[in-house]
Amino acid sequence: MRRRVVVTGMGAVTPLGCKVDEMWARLCRGESGIRPIEGFDVSIFKVRFGGEIRNWNPVEYIDSKEQRRIDRFAQYALVAATDAIRESGLDFSKEAPHRCASVIGSGVGGLGEIEAQFRRLMEKGPERVSAFTIPKMMLNAAAGCVSIQFGLKGPAYGVVTACASASNAIVEAVKEIESGDIDIAITGGSEAAVTPLGIAGFAAMKALSERNDDPQRASRPFDRDRDGFVLSEGAGILVLEEYEHARKRGAPILAEMLGYGVSSDAGHITQPDENGLGAARAMSDALASAGLEKDRIDYINAHGTSTPLGDVAETIAIKSVFGDYAHSVPISSTKSQLGHLLGASGGVELVISILAIRHGLIPPTINLENPDPACDLDYTPNTARERRVRVAMSNSFGFGGHNVSLIVGELQNGSP
Amino acid sequence: MKIVSESLGVGQEQINRESHFVNDLGADSLDQAELVMALEDEFDISIPEEVASQIQTVGQAIDHIQEAVAEAEGEQNG
Question: What is the DSSP secondary-structure string of A380-410?
């Protein structure tokens, strides 16, 4: 029998707040975290808004010297991890360090640092490039920094599957615990790509909404008038723990990881399979791995990025997996409020799915005013809805054709 | 002193001429490389690697910077 994995702590850094409770309250009120970009001069950019973390000052978490040595994306991970570990009540001085892991995804890593140092290279020459360039930009920096900060000496690595990175990282962390190699994993994802190159690159792909005159209404998953996703930043980190380990130390058990499915489209590098075949496979594999019938899913936190193709493909995939029940299960895309945190999105959205279970409340899809006829499911439009949620599914799909579906639920008849 | 304080995240009041970059101020090899670059930028001087590797205290850094600045001015005047 495989070992059970539970969630004992959660942390989030998002455009709707850098504490889980604040983010949740604002999400459920239907607030948007999307605003004009202030971090750099956007006057010549086609897209001039996003979901930035404003007034970032993590001095209570990271001292000023360390802040200079760590890129924003790893800082977000450290802050969210610290909050998650506090909630879990873990004291790593009492744990076997080699049985603790740090598995954290990111789509692009320290993009801001790459840009800053490349500018120095071009303007001032190779001798002026910072000694911190490489340790700040590397995608595994978040996992490494968390491992160093908390003395976690088991496996520590980054996972990179674009917008599915966090969910893929969580799958790996679950497997590490299930297999018996470790007991505790700090996992999730982190991203800080609201930078000149990030905005320009995604805009060049026509992937981003260009609704500059109305940023808060730009992210509108499943709506007829959607025109692309909104780039955001932040982190979503969870503490996963083997069930008996958590129970013995009297940890707060927030939820249980019940299943996961991972697949690849093996099609186009950025476009989803138009019939959502890969996405459907991930969802059906997740159900099989959880050993659950499809009608046991009470809520789906959709990938739902607000792109014309992606939202339709996901809708088709959900219908193909859930059949008639697809029209009954409440779905929402919280990217409507938060924008798209890329490689962090799966972490934040798993946190949100767990909060939906714990609060009996489904956060809405905002800006859903005129549903696309091809998107005809119940996306919980515009207003949060009370509902008992025992089991939730969270989907994440990434450029490269990566599909991940996670299933999380209330602790399954295991209370002592 | 201000640059040293900012680079290494140590209060200026804790820094004096005798402060050892590694033993007293907690600098690692990356910090030292960054610090040399910051000093070069601030004083518009070049600190060759063989010289940089000899500098272990704040006082030694100040002496070297003063020498290098004087040399640079001498060259301009000459």
Answer: -BSS-EE---SEEEEEEEETTTEEEEEEEES
